[in-house]
Design a protein that fits this description.
about 250 residues; alpha/beta; 2-enoyl-CoA Hydratase, Chain A, domain 1; about 20% strand
Length: about 250
C-alpha cells in the first residue's frame, strides 16, 4: 500500500513536467478525427535526443476546473481514438512512439460508455499492437485497468520505482472480493502491483530509479529510453512486430 500511496502522491512527476524536460520543440496535436478532443490525453511531436518522436501522455491537470474536464486523468473514448491516431501517424512517418501513463483507468461515466469506451480501448490496443514503429511506454504513477493497458501494449513497458500497475484499484478489488473497501491494503498485497513484482513476473522490462530531484529523475528516464530505442530501431519491422506479438502471448 505504500507503493500505491507513492504512485498517487501529488508532488510526483507530472506529464507536463516530463514533456517540458524530456522533449524540445514539442507541438501538441488535437482531436480524434471523429469530432472530439479529450484533454486527458495530451500528445504530439517533439525532439528526443535529436530525433523526432511522437509523444503521448495522460494528463490529470492542475486547477480544479481543468482536473474535472480531464476526469482527473481518466480518458474518454475520444482520448483513446486520439492516441491511436497519433500512433498510426507516427508509423506512417517512421517516428518512434513514447507513451507516459498515470491514470486510475478509463473514465467510467455513462456518457463514456454510450460513446463506446470498450470499443475505443480495444481498437487502441489493436492499432498500437500493429504499428510498424518502435513503441515504449513508461508508467510514472498509477497504471489502472484497461485504461492503462490500452497505452502499454507496445514493444516495452517500464515503470518508475514509485508507480503501480494493476487490473483495478486496491479499493475496487476489496469492494468486489470482500464487499469492504477498508481492506484495500490487504488487496494491494494480493494484486502484486509493485514494479518489483511485475518485473519478476516478466510483465515489464525494467524499473527506472526514482532518486534525487525531478530533473535527475528525468535524466534517468532519458538514459533508459535512449538505450532502449537504439536497440529497437535496429530491428527489422517484421522482427519488431513478431517480438511484440510474442511478448504478449507469454501472458
Amino acid at each position: 500500500m505504500e507503493t500505491v500511496r507513492a504512485a498517487r502522491a501529488s508532488d510526483k512527476l507530472s506529464a507536463h513536467y516530463l514533456r517540458e524536460h524530456l522533449f524540445s520543440d514539442f507541438v501538441e496535436l488535437h482531436g480524434d478525427r471523429q469530432g472530439a478532443d479529450d484533454p486527458a490525453i495530451v500528445g504530439g511531436i517533439g525532439l528526443f535526443a535529436g530525433q523526432p518522436v511522437t509523444v503521448i501522455t495522460t494528463s490529470r491537470g492542475y486547477k480544479l476546473e481543468e482536473r474535472l474536464a480531464k476526469h482527473f486523468g481518466q480518458p474518454e473514448p475520444a482520448g483513446y481514438r486520439k492516441a491511436a491516431r497519433l500512433v498510426k501517424d507516427a508509423a506512417r512517418f517512421k517516428r518512434p512512439v513514447l507513451l507516459f501513463i498515470d491514470t486510475a483507468g478509463a473514465f467510467p461515466g455513462k456518457e463514456a460508455e454510450y460513446a463506446g469506451q470498450g470499443q475505443a480501448i480495444a481498437q487502441c490496443l489493436t492499432d498500437i499492437g500493429q504499428a510498424e514503429t518502435p513503441i515504449i511506454s513508461v508508467i510514472f504513477g498509477e497504471g489502472g485497468s484497461g485504461g492503462a493497458l490500452a497505452l502499454a501494449c507496445g514493444d516495452e513497458l517500464w515503470m518508475m520505482e514509485n508507480s503501480m500497475y494493476s487490473v483495478l484499484s486496491p479499493e475496487g478489488f476489496a469492494s468486489i472480493l470482500w464487499k469492504d473497501a477498508s481492506r484495500a491494503a490487504e488487496a494491494a498485497e494480493l494484486l502484486g502491483l509493485t514494479p518489483e513484482s511485475l518485473l519478476k513476473g516478466q510483465v515489464i522490462e525494467g524499473v527506472i530509479k526514482q532518486e534525487g530531484s525531478k530533473s535527475a529523475q528525468c535524466r534517468e528516464i532519458a538514459r533508459v529510453l535512449e538505450e532502449e530505442l537504439a536497440k529497437l530501431k535496429k530491428l527489422p519491422v517484421s522482427s519488431l512486430l513478431n517480438r511484440r506479438y510474442e511478448r504478449f502471448r507469454k501472458f
